[in-house]
Structure formats: C-alpha cells, structure tokens
Amino acid sequence: MPEQHVGFEEFVTPGRDRARARVVHEALRHLAGGSGGEVLREMAQEVLSGRMRLHEAVRVGAYSEALTESVETAQAAWERLSPEERERGTAEARRFLAARAEPPGS
Which of 3, 67, 87, 98 is 20 to 30 A from 76, alpha carbon to alpha carbon? Predict the structure, then answer.
C-alpha cells in the first residue's frame, strides 16, 4: 500500500502563497523520487509523509548540507548563464508560478 502524502496546503505559510506552496510540494515529490540523491529523497519522504515538518527538516545536519550543496550547484549554473538566458529563465519561472496560482478545477 503506498504511503499517504500531505497535500500542498501543508506548505502554505505567511509569506508563501498557494502557488508557491504547490511548487514546494511538487519539488518535494520530485526529490522523493530520488532526483536529488539519497539524502534529499529521504528528507522529502519524511516531509511528505507528515512525519517531519519542512522547517524541522532543514535543521537536520545531513539534510541541510545536501540542500546547501544543491542550492550552490544551482546558483553556480545560474551565474554561468548569459543575461539573455537568465531573462528567459526568469520569464519561464514566472509563467510556471502563474500556472500554479489557480490550477484547472479549483
């Protein structure tokens, strides 16, 4: 029987609207599939299962280190982009968030 997961509503907080909560939820589901390596897979599964809150998970040393490494890698990749590529990426991110603001049927 598959493990139950919390919904995106769990991630709506002051300063994080429903669209961003959906993105956090989607990112955790992606990580839970193993895309970020074993440590982030474990962290995402703990958070999605409800056994651990996201703010608790980022305080766990191994999870924090893996997240920091992942963010640093993404930051370095972003910095290697040309200004035009960054502008396209920013526009794409805005469209991505806008599409999650009000999903079909809600």
Answer: 98
Residues 6+ apart with CB under 8 A from 3: 45, 49
Q: Where are the alpha helices (DSSP H) in the chain?
A: 18-32, 38-49, 54-57, 61-80, 83-101
> Residue 5's closest CA among 41, 31, 29?
29
pLDDT in tens, 3-23: 778 998 888 888 888 888 899
Return the SS3 of 60.
coil
CA–CA gap between residue 19 and residue 37 (Å, rounded): 26
**Domain coordinates in residue numbering, the chain:** 8-100
The structure tokens listed for 28 are 């955790």
Q: Three-state SS for 1?
A: coil
**CB contact at 8 A, 43 and 63:** yes
Sign of CA dihedral 99, 30, 46, 75: negative
**Dmax over Cα atoms in the chain, in whole Å?**
48
